[in-house]
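Long-time lurker. I teach an intro course on protein structure, and each term I like to show students one example going from raw sequence to a predicted 3D structure in token notation. This year I'd like something fresh instead of my usual example. Would anyone be willing to generate the tokens for the chain below so I can use it in lecture? Attribution to the forum is fine with me.
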Amino acid sequence: MKSTPSLSQINDLQDSVARGDLEHAELGIRELIGAYPTFAPAYALLGLCLWKRNKPEEALVNFQRATLCDLNDVESGVMHVRCLDRLQRYEDALMVAEQWYWRFPNHKVLKSLVRGLRRIAKPQIDGWERTGFIVLHEVDLKGPEAS
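-- Reply from a regular --
Happy to contribute to a lecture. Here you go:
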């Protein structure tokens, strides 16, 4: 048994995804993964197929698997971040984006994602901390004139 599938098999599945024949592509990709369980591009393609079918949670799992099979698969890393972003898991998305950006500092999409996520994730953290401070210290928000 070969360690990787044929190029024509991969191209056919990529064409199916590109054409929007997503159900057919998903079935084929799952068969491919069954035959080649450590083939990172199959997981990445399945993740893309699921992403296009608006299933970000399932896509996330497959992009993670792709990056575990190929630690340099930066495009799957980017899609991993995008899935977390779509799921509104901004702190997780920022953490993953920063890890990838640390390894690939010249990647323009990662740079953009990190910048955007820092604006989204950080205010949530800061806002929560301020709210906790107000409650903890029973700060009077009315001011001295209200008394």
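Some talking points for your students: The first helix runs from residue 7 to 19. The CA atoms of residues 82 and 117 lie 10 Å apart.
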